[in-house]
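Colleagues,

For the teaching module next term, I've prepared a clean inverse folding example: a structure given as tokens, and then the sequence designed for it. I'd like students to try predicting residues themselves before seeing the answer, so please don't circulate the second half yet.
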């Protein structure tokens, strides 16, 4: 990695203006809506959904991309002629392409050749270029190679996610949640429930809870095929897995930004139940949500059951990570599910019965 000449006044001026543009985006879009999920009032448990799908690029990853760009600019890694490279075929690449265009630098997303045309179109719509590789395991090495050849910068979300975000505050997602909850009946949540992709969001929230001395517990959900749950349970930082089918969360390896020490509990959710909960959420709330939101809600249901059995009252907060419109050809497609032997109907019936119990 080459550092820019910070003594060049033109570069300093450009960097200052780029940071101003990114910070201006923060003012326009950082605080997202907190929706009430309809639960029977006599349960004494309130559930809230923080809607990260309303960001300009449509997902929770907008926050991460903004933090990564500020980190790269402040560290002298991104300048006026820097090509930014990222290993991502999903929402992070869409959001990073947006910020690259905002400050006027090229962006390349390195992704498997199997990536859906819809995802490629979203990245290209934001001004990014897509570099496809046949071997999904080669995206990291290929990203390093492209960055070196172009004199650019490999953003490396999986390494820098937890350190790029200011977990003490600065309107991060944790601070936003507690501020928005301040006038609710149970202002300090009993649980906050999130998934882990890079591990950056769970690290930020877990650190903030401890820093502010809240009693809130952090539950991290993990889909089938992800290494995070196995690593947290066994304590093995080198645990590996096949990889997740729920986009945006789960990884085949334990990423550097995943911090198990800030997590109170991990819950593994079967893919069929994640997708059932995604569809159930749309039925109950009228909001179109994605698969990782379904994973969150599947775990939330288990926590609510436990709270009720224990006679505990309080609040739970989880995230709407992105919208369901990105998954019309996959999770929302019954033929796609049948091809993969995913039977969501027993889970859907169970979730419907949960509210009627």
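(Answer key — instructors only)
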């Amino acid at each position: 990695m080459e550092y820019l000449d910070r003594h060049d006044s033109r570069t300093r001026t450009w960097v200052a203006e780029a940071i101003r543009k990114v910070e201006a985006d923060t003012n326009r879009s950082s605080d997202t809506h907190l929706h009430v999920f309809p639960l029977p009032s006599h349960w004494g448990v309130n559930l809230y959904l923080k809607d990260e799908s309303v960001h300009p690029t449509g997902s929770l990853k907008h926050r991460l991309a903004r933090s990564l760009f500020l980190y790269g600019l402040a560290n002298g890694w991104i300048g006026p002629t820097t090509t930014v490279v990222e290993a991502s075929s999903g929402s992070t690449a869409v959001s990073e392409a947006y910020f690259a265009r905002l400050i006027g630098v090229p962006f390349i997303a390195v992704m498997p050749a199997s990536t859906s045309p819809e995802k490629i179109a979203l990245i290209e719509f934001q001004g990014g270029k897509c570099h496809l590789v046949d071997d999904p395991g080669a995206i990291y090495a290929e990203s390093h190679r492209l960055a070196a050849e172009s004199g650019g910068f490999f953003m490396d979300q999986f390494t820098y996610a937890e350190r790029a975000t200011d977990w003490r505050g600065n309107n991060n997602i944790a601070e936003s949640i507690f501020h928005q909850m301040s006038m609710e009946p149970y202002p300090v949540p009993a649980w906050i429930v999130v998934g882990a992709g890079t591990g950056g969001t769970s690290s930020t929230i877990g650190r903030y809870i401890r820093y502010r001395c809240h009693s809130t517990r952090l539950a991290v959900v993990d889909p089938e095929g992800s290494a995070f749950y196995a690593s947290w349970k066994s304590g093995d930082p080198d645990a590996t897995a096949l990889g997740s089918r729920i986009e945006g969360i789960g990884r085949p390896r334990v990423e550097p930004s995943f911090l198990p020490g800030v997590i109170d509990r991990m819950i593994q959710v079967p893919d069929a139940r994640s997708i059932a909960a995604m569809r159930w959420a749309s039925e109950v709330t009228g909001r179109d949500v994605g698969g990782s939101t379904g994973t969150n809600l599947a775990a939330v249901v288990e926590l609510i059951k436990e709270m009720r059995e224990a006679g505990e009252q309080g609040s739970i907060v989880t995230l709407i990570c992105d919208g369901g419109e990105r998954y019309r050809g996959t999770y929302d497609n019954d033929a796609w599910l049948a091809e993969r032997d995913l039977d969501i109907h027993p889970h859907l019936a169970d979730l419907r019965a949960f509210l009627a119990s």
